[in-house]
Write a structure and sequence with these properties.
- By secondary structure, the protein is α/β, with parallel strands linked by helices.
- Helices cover about 35% and strands about 25% of the residues.
- The protein has a seven-stranded mixed beta sheet with strand order 26-25-24-27-28-32-29, sandwiched between helices. The protein has a six-stranded parallel beta sheet with strand order 6-11-10-7-8-9, with helices on both faces. Strands 3-2-1-4-5 form a five-stranded parallel beta sheet, sandwiched between helices.
- The model has no long low-confidence stretch (mean pLDDT about 90).
Length: about 650
């Protein structure tokens, strides 16, 4: 058996060990620390050695094991280790391959310096806080920076040795950030904001080392990037080149080739020629049993599965097959399992082949076009189709389950949409294909297959799109303090217009009460989401009933008082504040931390609240502001006459800061 040694202290090194796991080679993976050992998945053919080796230690290891190849997959900046590996291999001799990581594109605004000493000298002449993301090993080289303990923050691994290095350098505990990556752009930016750093110091660790996330975070936070240049250029191979060498030299199995094939409605005649060829050429066919039964060729290996993890696991474990075809019903881009499967196949060569969708097939059978059709799916998911049908002239839907089609048709009938035309398609493209046409009401007692589709046509869509729904459309309720508050129709219409909502808006409704604003937000931001924040349990229950009353699925109720109940909510694009319970400034501060460009609309009834909002506008530096006081009167009968009765004046504050979103 061939023997391979990998110095696996990087992401690429770990990927290489993972690739060789289970292959017909013996692998020795060398890592510097016990922590590095925990990052490697165990395998029968992999031995892990944890601990730092000098040149002599490497010579002894290489001589004792008699390796056929040594792969240096250490960090681009580990020039001392790389040198030791090269000299030890040359003395024995042992063949060596250096696995190289591609360099990153560095922006013109960044400062690139040759080494740590040059970086320290540069930073000594600057003002402002510094975040070091260069590790703990060479932290001492930065102690020459003026006011080191006051200006410098270090992000290091949460290891005792790292913390000891920080202590020896003289960093106070409050300036030590002990965290394990990988770090997202948002996490990097959060650390920069927390430390108030004007400089971010990093090595060019490449894409695998999170360099781009650091660079993007520095730009977002207004920090200047200081990049430590790499050691001298070396010869070597990329990860893919190294894997190719292992396959050619030692017979390791190549990366699987996976074709995700849209087979159309199901029959062989409904497949494209490309899909048919991909199935013929596959060493192994994967998919639901009904699909593999229809598509498999004589003697072809078949694996029945539909779950992405199960499919990906089978492909990983069966390297004897060079080419797989994964079958997907209909088109791979139309309510297909392809969306969830693709991320699970990141270590495969993947090709996606489209197919004929059930939408295009049914519309072709009916002699209708489909460019204006609203598409939804009721197959394997909860969804109320009534708002879609009220809003659109034509809706197409996939339906699953023995009673799925009947239940959908019954729900349309109960909602007063029993007269809409429905064309139901079953077993499309098969010899026993059936298309049934009628109204929702007449078809609601019919029997349909468990996998059916429908085209619903509504000649008179009646979905109201203007804001300001009648107050009587909402359920009101009594709380401990009386009737649960509600933003009335006229005020609500003005507030919604001032919010300037988009269809994809992420909204907060703080102090949601009955949910009248929540409901209207959700109807307008139909592809977005609304988080309704309410601190009173009885009001939250009423809020949920009104959400259900309007068949809304893009609303989440967050019970609790703001801002605490909002801490874990996603950053809003828009926020309405109907009640702050005395926490106005804290709520606004959180909103702007989440998204400095969030558009905020608030209402005030009392003079004191109006004065607080006016002060908030000055305090937080809102640039785009508008203040409107509404005086609404409503008619009431008085004998043979009608008199106007004034409502409480309401002041509406609309505001948006000029920060970066």
């Amino acid at each position: 058996m061939y023997k391979i040694c990998i110095f696996a202290g990087t992401t690429e090194g770990r990927e290489l060990v993972s690739f060789l796991s289970g292959q017909a080679v013996a692998v020795t993976a060398c890592v510097a620390t016990e922590y590095g050992e925990t990052l490697l998945s165990p395998a029968d053919n992999v031995t892990v050695l944890a601990g730092r080796l000098d040149e002599e230690g490497m010579e002894r290891l290489f001589a004792a094991e008699g390796f056929d190849l040594v792969v240096d997959a250490t960090h681009p900046y580990a020039d001392v280790v790389t040198g030791n590996i090269a000299r030890a291999c040359e003395k024995l001799p042992v063949e060596r391959v250096r696995l190289l990581r591609g360099e990153s594109a560095v922006s013109e605004s960044a400062v690139t310096l040759p080494d740590m000493d040059a970086a320290a000298a540069f930073l000594d002449g600057t003002e402002g806080n510094i975040l070091l993301a260069t590790g703990s090993k060479e932290l001492g080289k930065f102690t020459s920076i003026r006011d080191f303990a006051g200006r410098v923050y270090a992000r290091v691994l949460p290891l005792a040795s790292s913390l000891e290095a920080c202590r020896e350098a003289g960093l106070p505990p409050s300036h030590i950030i002990a965290m394990q990556g990988p770090f997202s752009e948002e996490m990097n930016a959060a650390v920069l904001y927390m430390t108030g750093a004007r400089f971010l110091v990093t090595k060019d660790g490449g894409d695998k080392g999170g360099f781009m996330e650091k660079a993007a975070a520095a730009e977002k936070a207004g920090a200047r990037l200081v990049v430590i240049g790499r050691p001298g250029e070396q010869e070597g191979l990329t990860l893919s080149g190294t894997i190719a060498l292992l396959c050619d030299r030692f017979g390791c199995k190549k990366t699987p080739e996976v074709r995700i094939v849209g087979i159309g409605p199901g029959s062989e005649g409904g497949m494209t020629r490309e899909a048919f060829r991909a199935i013929e050429e596959a060493d192994c066919l994967i998919g639901a049993k009904r699909m593999t039964d229809a598509a498999a060729k004589g003697g072809q290996t078949v694996f029945n599965a539909v779950a992405p993890d199960e499919i990906a696991g089978f492909i990983r474990e069966h390297g004897e097959f060079g080419r797989f075809a994964v079958l997907m019903a209909g088109d791979t881009g139309f309510f297909s399992g392809t969306k969830k499967l693709l991320p699970a196949l990141e270590n495969c060569r993947v090709t996606v082949l489209p197919g004929v969708s059930s939408l295009s097939y049914l519309c072709a059978r009916l002699g209708k076009t489909w460019e204006d059709v609203r598409c939804v799916s009721l197959h394997g998911r909860e969804h109320d189709i009534v708002p879609d049908v009220r809003r659109s002239r034509r809706v197409f839907t996939l339906v699953g389950g023995e009673r799925g089609m009947r239940d959908m048709l019954a729900s349309l009938t109960r909602a007063g949409l029993g007269e809409v035309r429905v064309s139901v398609g079953e077993r499309l493209s098969y010899p026993d294909e059936r298309v049934t046409i009628g109204t929702a009401q007449t078809l609601s007692e019919g029997t349909f297959g468990p996998l059916s589709v429908a085209l619903i046509e509504n000649d008179a869509p009646d979905f109201i799109v203007t804001p300001g729904l009648p107050d009587d459309d909402f359920e009101r309720g009594e709380g401990k303090g009386g009737v649960v508050p509600m933003t009335k129709s006229e005020v609500r219409a003005v507030c919604l217009s001032k919010l300037r909502l988009t269809e994809n808006a992420v909204c907060w409704d703080i102090g949601a009460g009955t949910g009248s604003v929540t409901v209207e937000m959700a109807r307008l931001a139909r592809f977005g989401h609304v988080w309704a924040v309410e601190r009173r349990a009885e009001a939250a229950g009423l809020l949920r009933r009104n959400i259900a009353r309007f068949s809304l699925e893009n609303v989440t109720v967050a019970e609790g008082a703001a801002p605490e109940a909002c801490m874990d909510l996603p950053a809003p694009t828009h926020a309405f504040i109907g009640g702050s319970s005395g926490n106005m400034r804290e709520i606004v501060s959180l909103l702007l931390r989440k998204n400095p460009r969030a558009r905020i609309v608030a209402t005030a009834v009392s003079l004191e609240s109006a004065a607080e909002w006016t002060a908030c506008i000055r305090e937080f530096g809102f640039e785009d502001t508008e203040i409107v006081t509404l005086n609404v009167s409503r008619a009431r009968p008085a004998g043979r006459y009608h008199l106007m009765t004034a409502q409480n004046p309401v002041t509406v504050f609309a505001m948006q800061a000029g920060g970066e979103a």
